[in-house]
Specification:
This protein is of the alpha+beta class and about 220 residues long. The protein has helices spanning about 1-10, 120-135, 145-155; strands spanning about 20-30, 35-40, 55-65, 70-80, 85-90, 110, 115-120, 155, 160, 165, 175-180, 185-190, 190-195, 200-205. It has a six-stranded antiparallel sheet, with helices on both faces. Strands 2-7-11-10 form a four-stranded antiparallel sheet. The longest helix is centred in the middle third of the chain and has 18 residues, at about 120-135.
């Protein structure tokens, strides 16, 4: 799969060499169980976690923007500094990479222009928050975006940033890393870099493919 080779060339090192990308360290995501979910949080309330069990705790998140468009091309979580020996497409329960043909991918759909990473426990907290707000506000409930997400991306002066960390339950450690997805709507895959002991070192979600210069 040539696409995996491109991901490997971009992300197997501890730094990005492509002049087409600009990298930002966004902060840290907290994974209480290590069961990681990637989804559009506004349309996918119960997305399955990836099959791979990731470490528990806090881990740095990096955003890689396409310089020309200033849109987010990749979002990355780093779990360790060991050398990466293999890359695989991330899958959830019931997905088999051997069944894919050509350039087919497993991933998640985006309709709202927003994607996220979060622990499966945090996903439960988000769903609980949405139900709580709905029952409290009734007909005045404007949806989970307006009630929860919007304030982190916009203020009275307009847009604040393209990404943010959010906590749906202040009593829990888990948080959501939410962000604008590339050029907007689409279907996006994630890729896991494994160390020699088959432990996950990185996970990347790709929104805009940046080709590596072969020269």
């Amino acid at each position: 799969m040539n696409h995996i080779n491109n991901i490997a060339k971009l992300f197997s090192k501890n730094f990005i060499e492509s002049p087409l990308l600009e990298t930002f360290e966004a902060g840290k995501i907290n994974l209480p169980t290590g069961k990681l979910v990637a989804c559009d949080p506004l349309i996918t309330s119960e997305m399955n976690a990836f099959k791979v069990n990731f470490p528990m705790g806090e881990f740095p998140v990096f955003v890689h923007k396409e310089r020309e468009s200033n849109c987010i091309a990749y979002v990355e979580i780093i779990f360790g500094s060991d050398e990466i020996s293999e890359w695989n497409m991330a899958t959830t329960e019931g997905q088999n990479i051997d069944e894919l043909k050509g350039e087919e991918i497993f991933g998640y759909p985006v309709q709202s222009g927003m994607g996220c990473f979060m622990d499966v426990e945090t996903q439960d907290c988000l769903n609980h928050l949405e139900k709580k707000l709905f029952h409290r506000k009734g007909a005045d409930f404007m949806g989970i975006y307006e009630e929860f997400f919007h304030q982190h991306f916009f203020d009275e002066n307009g847009a604040i940033d393209q990404y943010a960390f959010l906590k749906p339950d202040e009593e829990k450690n888990g948080n959501i890393f939410a962000f604008e997805t590339g050029y907007g709507e689409g279907f996006y895959a994630s890729y896991i870099g494994f160390g020699k002991d088959n432990q996950p070192i990185k996970i990347i979600t790709e929104f805009i493919e940046i080709q590596v210069d072969e020269s």
